[in-house]
Design a protein that fits this description.
- It is built from three helices and no strands.
- The protein is mainly alpha-helical.
- The chain is elongated.
């Protein structure tokens, strides 16, 4: 089999695969997009406030450690509350996902 025939076969197989499986995939249009007002609120107000919450949360975590260190899971709970949750809401959450 020559290269041209093999290339045509591969192209045909790829086209058949895409034609069959792409319509079955979930689309991004299924989820409602964030409104423009939500984007402005998110970018100009909520993300900077989240960043300031991280900056304030690190010292609060450091102060809370001696008080919660002897309780089982206390340090992890304190870390989650003061540092991890603000980081997730500021950097990992999608825009408009309140």
């Amino acid at each position: 089999m020559d290269i041209a025939a093999r290339t045509r076969q591969l192209a045909l197989a790829l086209t058949a695969f895409v034609a069959f499986f792409v319509p079955l995939a979930p689309t991004a249009a299924a989820e409602p997009a964030a409104e423009p007002g939500e984007w402005v609120l998110e970018i100009l107000l909520l993300r900077p406030l989240g960043f300031m919450r991280i900056i304030a949360g690190v010292p609060f975590f450091a102060v809370s450690v001696p008080f919660v260190a002897f309780r089982e899971g206390g340090v992890e709970e304190s870390w989650d509350f003061f540092v991890d949750e603000p980081v997730e809401s500021t950097f990992e959450r999608e825009i408009g996902d309140f």
